[in-house]
């Protein structure tokens, strides 16, 4: 499960989403934000039957903790500890308050699926892409186009820092105490713990067979088994089955209350979904550095200061987007045009925003709306996208090369897919006056093609200002 979800974030071709996009939609918090009642009910029923197997089978951050814990090679390394109520429940209360109050940064910081998404997007994907570029270079020498080179760039330094800190914290907690993060900080784990107490299938003691050897406690990564009292804290148990396999006397069974002696599969691994790995190599034109006539490398563009952030078509409005987005960064990792990146603004930290220094939002691309699991970006088709106005273009006279360099241009008008820009004389009374862009705001959809192709550097002479509420034109 973790491998497949990780591949969703690593895959920059968008190929795997067609087969495995549902993995993001069955995550608990994205389902809550998307008001996906079917998934929420299914996960709660799953918990009421099997216990907290969501945390150990479905949640990628939960599985990732198990991976990190294996770096500590010491056997029988855990021990029983009491529930940390003073931290666990206040964190949940603060999480709910942040969710209701719209404090997205705090909410996204604690969301487990989003935390793993940031790690996968900001740390794992660049490494994956560098490996792809090495293979592309090798393939090119063999006259093969099975791989193509892609740009690897820092999308957001603050969010990268948050991902690194999260990874370090997870590693330390998992190395020392296994599922410490799951059972003391994670709000999803706390919510599911209420239902797990009443699950039908549980880890149960057969006191007659127990020799008090403590092996169950020493192998419980949730630190929830007290072998002295033959008790299990079911609110923290993630049903990993380690205790059953460690018990040499058969004193532990995973069973229903009515049939405590009926043996079941001792490992939760039998519940793993069987999935087929579908790998596709996309053949595409190799990207080259942006050059001026092939003679000199152009200066990188600087993002303009937009009064209203740009949000993707399908997000309806900035408010809707901020309220529903969990900050998982899946849309960022899937954007083929390098338009989406995490916001570095403290007020909207980790919230994906759009900018057009490296590409523009192509009217035929709807990938972000198809991958969003939280309902922050509603699914739209290509025809619908072409009629959604997310912003409008603004011309900055002082930056235009027509005036600064006294040359003819018209790039913005030629490349506008909506036909919202035309070249007019700066002085309508002077026939020799230079031709400058005139923008029809009513027809502009805010795709950013004009901003991207504008030759003015480092600041474009034309940029897109966002709309708080999207319009259909």
What does this structure look like?
The two termini are 42 Å apart. The chain is an alpha+beta fold and 473 residues long. A two-stranded antiparallel sheet has the order 1-4. It has a two-stranded antiparallel sheet with strand order 2-3. Strands 5-6 form a two-stranded antiparallel sheet. The longest helix is centred in the first third of the chain and has 30 residues, at 112-141. The chain has 22 helices and twelve strands. It has helices spanning 2-10, 17-20, 22-25, 28-33, 37-50, 53-58, 60-69, 85-101, 104-110, 112-141, 157-177, 180-184, 187-196, 215-218, 242-246, 318-324, 330-334, 367-371, 382-385, 401-404, 411-415, 449-453, and strands spanning 202-205, 225-226, 231-232, 252-255, 291-292, 296-297, 340-342, 352-354, 388-395, 421-425, 435-439, 462-472. Helix 1 (2-10) packs across helix 7 (60-69), helix 7 (60-69) packs across helix 10 and helix 10 crosses helix 11. Residues 258-290 have low confidence and may be disordered. 40% of the residues lie in helices and 11% in strands.
Category by helix and strand content: alpha+beta
Shape: elongated
Instruction: Give the distance, in angstroms, between the N- and C-terminal Cα atoms.
Output: 42 Å
Strand order of the largest sheet: 1-4
